């Protein structure tokens, strides 16, 4: 089966132009594009019948669809994906858009939460979608770890960070733990954890346990492996997902099917479901990523698109993300540079305050 890039490469100039104009027409007004409309805008003069034949071929390829009998065509999810990957022309950030973003982040206040709230409001206002801003966790290097037994099935881990911050987390230790095995587990962790953040610790621990397995008895090893999974991976999260502009998704004519989809999306956002997964969407590298329709299982996004970009701290480590959710017919060419610029600007401010 041909990949989308191969399909695009094999298209002749006429098919490519018909496809591009159908998609651009749909993104501009949300309406199906008919053959007669295209006869007035095509580069070469061709008949409506010829354009209909090209549209049928594109439909067979799964790139266009017909929402109604005898109607024009709209792009399928696969068609939108191919357009975004191969034909989308991303413009420069408009001067007015840049001005509004700069104004939002222009104050010198050090309250990061207020600043990110304003970022979310600016993004939703500029894009007419719902904005998502994932704020960074408090992540200083670890200075010391201690375990305290609270009973047969409860234990406390005390985390002392290099910046003086202290956290206490209650968790369920593996069965049969003794004071000596807890001390051994703490000693092992302190030997490898100092100077590392919590998010860096998991990968290091798994590697160290594998290479130094003989140094830990069975109980201490279980304490490190199982305990770590509870108080690092499942411990309380410090990221905060800021959502602004949800009402934008209800503007215009919304049919019952779309309304149900949007309600489901709102429910997901209210529950802050899979908040860590939102950040993981951006972990494959810098830059903006676009998820169309059901490509993204994070939210109930069937019929919606997510444009998202990570932002980094001074050490070039991804610490948060900004994004926009809207209908699949987003103005991607305009929204991509807005999201990209905002993420870079937030990263610089985080680094300056860091």
Question: How is the topology of this model organized?
Answer:
Elements: H1 4-10, H2 13-29, H3 35-39, H4 48-60, E1 64-65, E2 74-75, H5 77-86, H6 95-104, H7 112-127, E3 130-135, E4 142-151, E5 154-161, E6 166-171, H8 179-193, H9 198-211, H10 218-233, E7 240-244, H11 256-271, H12 275-280, E8 289-292, E9 304-312, E10 318-327, H13 332-353
Antiparallel strand pairs: 1-2, 3-7, 3-10, 4-5, 5-6, 8-9, 9-10
What report would you give on this structure?
The chain has 354 residues and is of the alpha+beta class. The chain has three domains: 4-86, Arc Repressor Mutant, subunit A (Orthogonal Bundle), CATH 1.10.10.10; 95-137 and 240-353, 2-Layer Sandwich (Beta-Lactamase); 142-233, Enolase-like, N-terminal domain (Enolase-like, domain 1, 2-Layer Sandwich), CATH 3.30.390.10. The protein has 13 helices and ten strands. It has helices at residues 4-10, 13-29, 35-39, 48-60, 77-86, 95-104, 112-127, 179-193, 198-211, 218-233, 256-271, 275-280, 332-353, and strands at residues 64-65, 74-75, 130-135, 142-151, 154-161, 166-171, 240-244, 289-292, 304-312, 318-327. The strands form three sheets. The protein has a five-stranded antiparallel beta sheet with strand order 7-3-10-9-8. The protein is elongated, with a radius of gyration of 26 Å.
Which features characterize this protein?
Arc Repressor Mutant, subunit A, alpha+beta, elongated, three-stranded antiparallel sheet, 354 residues, five-stranded antiparallel sheet, 13 helices
Distance between the termini: 49 Å
| Order of strands across the main sheet | 7-3-10-9-8
Low-confidence stretches: none
Q: Give the number of helices.
A: 13
Any idea of the CATH class of the largest domain?
Alpha Beta
Query: CATH homologous superfamily of the largest domain, by name?
Result: GAF domain
Average pLDDT confidence is 81
Total separate domains = 3
General shape = elongated
User: Which value, in Å, is the CA radius of gyration?
Assistant: 26 Å
Helix amount: 40-55%
């Amino acid at each position: 089966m041909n990949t989308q890039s191969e399909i695009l490469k094999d298209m002749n100039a006429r098919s490519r132009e018909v496809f591009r104009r159908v998609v651009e027409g749909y993104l501009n007004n949300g309406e199906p594009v008919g053959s007669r409309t295209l006869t007035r805008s095509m580069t070469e003069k061709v008949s409506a019948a010829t354009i209909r034949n090209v549209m049928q071929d594109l439909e067979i390829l799964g790139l266009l669809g017909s929402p109604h009998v005898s109607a024009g065509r709209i792009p399928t999810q696969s068609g939108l994906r191919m357009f975004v990957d191969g034909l989308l022309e991303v413009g420069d950030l408009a001067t007015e858009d840049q001005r509004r973003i700069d104004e939002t982040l222009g104050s010198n206040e050090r309250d990061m939460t207020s600043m990110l709230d304003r970022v979310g409001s600016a993004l939703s206002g500029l894009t007419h979608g719902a904005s998502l801003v994932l704020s960074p966790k408090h992540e200083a290097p670890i200075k010391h770890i201690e375990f305290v037994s609270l009973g047969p099935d409860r234990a406390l881990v005390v985390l002392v960070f290099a910046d003086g911050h202290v956290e206490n987390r209650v968790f369920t230790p593996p069965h049969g733990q003794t004071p000596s095995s807890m001390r051994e587990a703490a000693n092992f962790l302190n030997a490898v954890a100092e100077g590392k953040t919590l998010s860096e610790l998991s990968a290091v621990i798994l590697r160290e346990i594998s290479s130094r397995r003989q140094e830990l008895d069975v109980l201490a090893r279980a304490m490190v492996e199982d305990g770590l999974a509870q108080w690092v991976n499942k411990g309380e999260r410090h990221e905060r997902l800021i959502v602004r502009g949800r009402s934008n998704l209800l503007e215009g004519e919304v049919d019952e099917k779309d309304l149900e989809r949007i309600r489901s999306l709102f429910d997901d956002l209210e529950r802050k479901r899979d908040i860590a997964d939102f950040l993981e969407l951006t972990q494959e590298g810098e830059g903006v990523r676009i998820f169309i329709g059901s490509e993204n299982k994070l939210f109930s996004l069937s019929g919606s698109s997510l444009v998202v970009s990570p932002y980094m701290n001074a050490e070039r480590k991804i610490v948060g993300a900004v994004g926009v959710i809207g209908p699949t017919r987003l103005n991607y060419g305009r929204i991509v540079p807005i999201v990209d610029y905002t993420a870079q600007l937030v990263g610089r401010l985080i680094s300056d305050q860091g």
